Every structure is written in C-alpha cells, then in structure tokens.
Amino acid sequence: MRHFIMMLSMALLGAVTPVHAEVSFCPGLITAVEPKLAGHEAAFVRSYEPGADEEGLPLGLSTTAFTYDNALAAIALVACGRVNEARVIGNALVHAASHDRTFDDGRLRNAYRAGPVGLGAALLPGWWDHQNNIWGEDPAQDGTATGNVAWAALALLTLHQATGDATYLSSARRLMDWIIGNASSGEDGFSGGFHGYDPQQVRLTWMSTEHNADVYAVGSWLHRLTSEQRYQGAAQTARRLLDRSFRGDHFLLGTKPDGSDADSNLLALDVQLWPWMAVPDAPDWRKALGFAQAHLAVDNGFDFNGDRDGVWVEGTAQAALASRMAGDAAASQRLLAGLRDDRTSSGLLNATRSARVSTGLSIDPSGAGTIPDFFYYKRPHLGATAWAVLAETGWNPFTGARVP
Predict the structure, then answer these.
(1) Model confidence over 159-180: pLDDT tens digits?
(2) Is the dihedral of CA 172, 176, 177, 178 positive or negative?
(3) Could you report the per-residue pLDDT of 42-56, keeping only the tens digit for each?
(4) Are 399 and 217 in contact (CB under 8 A)?
(5) What pLDDT was estimated at residue 361?
(6) How many CB atoms within 10 Å of residue 370?
(7) CATH topology for 2-397?
(8) Which of 86, 88, 240, 286 is 20–30 Å from 259 (CA)?
(9) Alpha-carbon gap, residue 281 to 297, rounded angstroms
(10) Which residues contact 387 (CB under 8 A, 6 or more apart)?
(11) What is the DSSP string of 317-333?
(12) Phi, psi angles (nearest 5°) of residue 122
C-alpha cells in the first residue's frame, strides 16, 4: 500500500522525477526527520539541534518547531519524493490551525512544541523557569506572523498537488482566508500579523515585502485552483506592496509601523530573492539578484544583510535556487558545492559557517525593540537544510513547479 501511495503521488506531481543519487541533501534531511515522524499521524520537527560545541540548546529553542521551518521541510520532503513523511508535518499544520488553546479563528502560531500532535490543542513551545518557578514562553513564538501562515498554506498546497487530498486544499484556503480577514491593510498590502502572549496580542501594523511575496504566491495558487476572485484580489493587493518596495534594482524591507517606507539602509537577502521567485511576470525584479551579489555576497556564499559578517547558509541556498531560476547554472552549482561543507552528522546543515551571523533586526517583531539582537548561530537547522534540498532539486516552493 505504501508503495502504491508513493507511485500515485509521483503520478499526480507530473513533473517530479525520482531523486538521483548525486543529490546529496535529500538523504540528510530524511535521516534527520524520519525518526521524528515515523509511526505518527501528525508531528512537528524541532527546528534546531545543538551545535558541535553545545551540550544542549538554549531553553528558548529546546522544544521549538518553527512553523516556517516545518512548512519548508514538508515541501522539501515532497521534492525528495517522500510524500508520506511530508504528510505527517502537513497533518500537524492542519490540526494546529483548527485546535488552538485560545483562538478559534483558524490562525497558526509561529512555533509549536516539537513532537507528535495529540487530539487536543496543539502545544506551544516553552520551558520551566526554575529561577522564578514558572512556565516560560516566548512572545514571538506564541504570535502569528502573516508570512508564516502563508508558508504553511504553501506546504498544504504542495501536499494537495502531490496527493489530491482535498483536506489540504480546504485547510490552505482557511489559512488564506485568515490572512485576508486579519492582516489586510486595505488595498496597499498585508500587515505583519500579531505578537505577544495570549489572549491580548499586539497587532503588527508594519508590512513586510517578504510576507507579501508569500501571500501573493498563496493567493495566485488558490486562484488557479478555485477561480475565486477573493484570492486573485489578495494576490493583487500583495503585489501592490511589492511594486511599492521595488527601487529599480533592489527591494526595501517593506514599511514601518506608521506606514512609511522602511529604512533604505536595512537590507535582507531573502527580500531581494523571494518577490521575483514568487511573481513570474516581473522580469525587471530579477535585477535584485545582481544587487544581492554586489552588496550581500561573501566568500562562497551570501550574508543575511549588508554587513557581510559571515555566510548565512539558508539564504545561500535560496540564492542557489534563485541563480538557477535566473539561468545561471554555474553560480547555482558553485553555491551548492559550498553548502555541502555545511552538512553535519545529524543530516542537517548548520545555519551559519562562522559562530554567529547578524541580521541587523530585533527579536521583538512588534517594532518596540530598538537593539539589533536577532542572530543566527552555527547549529544544525531544519530550514537551511530544506532550502538546500529545494535548490538542488530545482523546486520553486512558491509555485510548486520544478525549475528547468
């Protein structure tokens, strides 16, 4: 039966072909996640593993399965031909959106507790604070970022494409409906989402170029499948923010909480890549890849931002896929070759090559934080590994299609 399901899935995908032996990142991803998914109907995978010089993860990450990382992993598993394992993560996303401890509006949190998902409300990450004798949680992890909801929808649409299971399509529609109903900023784009502890969370009024690229992709995909105008309208709304953010050869981060343009000196690699990866009819936007090469490239990779203090592995994998999409196969292969040195014994790739890479951003997504304190560290990362898989298999996660 398992073999039949796999063959049916491959037939439904159409363009998908078996992963060749030279593909090196699929086996690592499968090695890392399969033991955590096997035997479960629904489960989340922890986003990070301890680094080589760490005895354990920081408490704030010790039980954390970020929604974005898990959505990426599900898509990457489909790209590897491992649809059954991808379904376990997809089922967890479906369950979490309809079984929340506080809200009944269909939202997803930014993170969940790693491990099998039971019948009740999906558990959120946390830890026991021995000093204060209380249960601790992270307000950003408890919140809901619009882009993360969109990525979960992309994962479910990918699974629907791979299996034909209508549950994944209906769940993706519900997630998109949540975005339309709760993150709309009129005709100008979609705002950041919500931040903070239950039940009174803070609405994030800034708009992200990255988030709106995600929303565009989901809205366009759903419109292709359903022909419903509200999804086309949502894609068009997100597109307006992308158009506004484009500066001829690069993209701004988006807007500030007051609606004004984000500071032009703040750069992020994914912001330069995702809009045109998601929007196929904007060829001028591909100039942003050249901008990234000029301003964000470091030795054999890319940094997160413009300070060039190290290689951000996840972003470098994104750039490898983007280069392939732009027709520069040599650059793509060169970046992929470098990523192979980032593999660890767990099967996952490290998040960085140096001990730490800065982003120039604050951990507090509400805009209240003023100190750039969001860093990536050299520890095995599910999201970085998933992007490496997508780059090597040529899978565009925004459209569900393989790149020639």
Answers:
(1) 999 999 999 999 999 999 999 9
(2) positive
(3) 999 999 999 999 999
(4) yes
(5) 83
(6) 8
(7) Glycosyltransferase (1.50.10)
(8) 286
(9) 26
(10) 72, 76, 314, 317, 318, 321
(11) HHHHHHHHHTT-HHHHH
(12) -65, 130
Residue 22: pLDDT above 90?
no
Distance of alpha carbon 308 from the chain centroid: 23
Q: Report how far residue 231's alpha carbon sits from residue 390's, in angstroms, rounded to the nearest whole number.
A: 26
pTM over 0.90: yes
CB 306 within 8 A of CB 357: no
Q: What is the pLDDT of residues 179-212, one digit of tens each?
A: 999 999 988 999 999 999 999 999 999 999 999 9
Backbone φ and ψ of 308, nearest 5°: 55, 50
Q: How far apart are the first and last CA of the chain?
A: 32
Closest CA to 285 of 253, 242, 337: 242
Three-point CA angle 231, 93, 188, nearest 5°: 30
In this structure, which amino acid lies at residue 342?
D
Could you tell me how far CA 203 lies from the centroid of its own chain?
Answer: 21
Cis amide bond preceding 199, omega within 30: yes
Distance CA 395, CA 404 (A): 9
Place of tokens 């060829």: 283
Query: Taking the domains of the chain in order of start, what are their residue ranges?
Result: 2-397
